[in-house]
Amino acid sequence: MSVVEGDQTYVMHTYGRLPVEFVSGRGAILVDSAGNEYIDCLAGIGAVSLGHANHAVVAALKAQADKVWQVSNYFYEENRNELASGISELLSALCEEDGHVMGSTGTAWRMFFCNSGAEANEGAIKIARRWGEVKLGGASCIVTAKQSFHGRTLATLAATGQDKFHESFQPMPAGFTTVPLNDIDALREAIDNPDDTTGPVCGVMLECVQGEGGVWPADYDYLRAVAKLCRKRHVLLLIDEVQTGFFRCGSPFMYQRAGIEPDIVSMAKGIADGFPMGAVAARADVADLMHPGDHGSTFGGNALAAAAGRATVETLVSENIGEHVLTTGRHLRHRLEAMPHVSQVRGHGLMRGAQLDVPIASELVDAGLGKGIILNHIGDSVLRFLPPLVITRYQVDKVCDTLEALIEELA
Ligand SMILES: Cc1ncc(COP(=O)(O)O)c(C=O)c1O
């Protein structure tokens, strides 16, 4: 039975798969079962932050695999605290934007580890509702943005501001409402005059760059106004950094570039270089509203994940990956902007969306595979770039040379 037949027969058809089976990789290169090499501009949907088979992460995983994998959260374990403190430092890091130093006012963070981005957001929603219960007289509504994406579990789908994901799966969990991104008046209205069906608001959850929605960044001014409004109303600000976090946009987390400080931050993807892991961080005084028994996960932050996460975070920092992301991301932007039929390039760092003025995005992805480049599209007209953060300038040039030729051929 071929790999395609096996997949068709035994695996649920929730993905349209591209016709290639990858068997190995190194850095930004993937190798298929026939030995062909590809430059990867998707990184397992933004997860493989340090590239495929990173030496430090592989070594940490191998060493841990020989010792112990899973003991549960009922016990202490190696690496968990080091990973948590490493991420806490990143959450409080300073960052320079437009000549200004942005960053923390000394917030202490506490982490909860889980296995995915959706789970991280589930945790974030529960913490915000606990805040609403204790501090806001039972407020439980979470405001999110239209075109947002927060995950595939039912609560995170309800939080996701795209009706197409809700249609077949009614009823959605209650207590979510959406407003247009970059419209502070709409958000103020949603908080000050809440809908009778959703009730008073306890939190606002936003992506600083909407990834799955088509790579749409929130304006810095908007994010600053949101942070100010939330603080004034005692409503929590939840920033979903699942896609933007861990230097994807240059700074450790994207909110730092806007110069805001959230109360809760969800993260996953790049946290462990592709090993399944997620986390939610909350300001210590908010986190401390959660007590033993309030939340949990069998596998969350297990020994293998903690080892992989710690090695990833330490290497991202020691290799000064943020600088590389900023310079390589700028180069990618300039190359994309110069291409025919690219009408706009959006995003930050190595999270970029190229808007095409012809609806050929999916054809480009298919054709790119035949030419040794792994691309990704959102809808008919947006190409999204989420390469491993270690992609080189030379590899970016190779991808862009190939893509430019394909656009000329197919447009
Ligand atoms: C911003 C954002 N939040 C949450 C998720 C869900 O993450 P996961 O697929 O790990 O559950 C994603 C996935 O693409 C995402 O981009």
| Total number of strands | 19
Proportion of beta-strand residues: 15-25%
Q: Please mark out the parts with pLDDT under 50 across 5 or more consecutive residues, or reply none.
A: none
CATH architecture call of the domain at 65-318: 3-Layer(aba) Sandwich
Radius of gyration: 21 Å
Helicity level, as a percent range?
Answer: 25-40%
Structural class: alpha/beta
- Provide the CATH topology of the domain at 65-318: Aspartate Aminotransferase, domain 2
Cα separation of the termini: 37 Å
Which CATH top level class of the domain at 65-318 fits?
A: Alpha Beta
Looking across the biggest beta sheet, what order are the strands in? 6-14-13-12-9-7-8
> CATH homologous superfamily of the domain at 65-318, by name?
Type I PLP-dependent aspartate aminotransferase-like (Major domain)
Global geometry: globular
State the major sheet.
7 strands, mixed
The pLDDT mean sits at: 96
What small molecules accompany the polymer chains? pyridoxal-5'-phosphate
**Tally the helices: what do you get?**
14
Q: Which keywords apply here?
A:
411 residues; alpha/beta; seven-stranded mixed β-sheet; 20% strand; globular
Structure description:
It is a single chain. The chain has helices at 3-10, 43-46, 55-65, 80-91, 117-135, 154-159, 184-192, 220-233, 254-258, 284-287, 303-318, 321-337, 361-370, 393-410; strands at residues 22-26, 29-32, 37-40, 95-97, 100-102, 109-114, 141-145, 176-179, 201-206, 209-210, 216-217, 236-240, 264-267, 278-283, 342-348, 351-356, 373-374, 376-378, 382-385. With 411 residues, it is α/β, with parallel strands linked by helices. Strand 12, helix 9 (254-258) and strand 13 form a beta-alpha-beta unit. The protein is globular and about 60 Å long. It has a domain at 65-318: Aspartate Aminotransferase, domain 2. It has a seven-stranded mixed β-sheet, with helices on both faces. Strands 1-2-3-17 form a four-stranded mixed β-sheet. The model has no long low-confidence stretch (mean pLDDT 96). Residues 45, 116-118, 121, 149-151, 207, 211-212, 240, 242-243, 268 line the site of pyridoxal-5'-phosphate (PLP). Pyridoxal-5'-phosphate (PLP) binds at residues 45, 116-118, 121, 149-151, 207, 211-212, 240, 242-243, 268.
